[in-house]
Amino acid sequence: MLPSYDLNAPKRAANLRVNEDLLNKAKSLDINLSATLEKALAQALKEKQREQWLADNRQAIAAYNEHVEANGVFSDELRSF
To answer: Is the sign of the CA dihedral 39, 45, 48, 54 positive or negative?
Structure first.
């Protein structure tokens, strides 16, 4: 599957506000904050893009499902299960 963003884009500094206790505990356990944030953002981006795609294609999906309900799928005669 293709990534939803440019993996080779340059890094950029960002100012964030984080719960102090959470930050201290993460640092004490040597959690890489940048890598963790990137992973969480990538997952959030993927979920939001999926939601957007489903919303954008809701009518087409419904129309296809109605067609299949009325006519079956093209491979009905070919399947053995």
So the answer is: negative
The pLDDT of 24-39, averaged and rounded, is 97
- pLDDT, mean over the chain: 93
Phi-psi region of 13 (alpha: psi -120 to 50; beta: other; left: phi over 0): beta
**Under 8 Å between Cβ of 4 and 49:** yes
- Amino acid letter for position 51: E
Confirm if 41 and 3 have CB atoms less than 8 A apart: no
Answer yes or no: is pLDDT of 53 > 70: yes
In this structure, what token pair is assigned to residue 57?
């294609």
Extents of the domains making up the chain: 18-76
Structure-block tokens of residue 27: 């640092």
CB of 45 closer than 8 Å to CB of 5: yes
Comparing CA positions, the residue from 9, 3, 16, 12 lying closest to residue 45 is 3
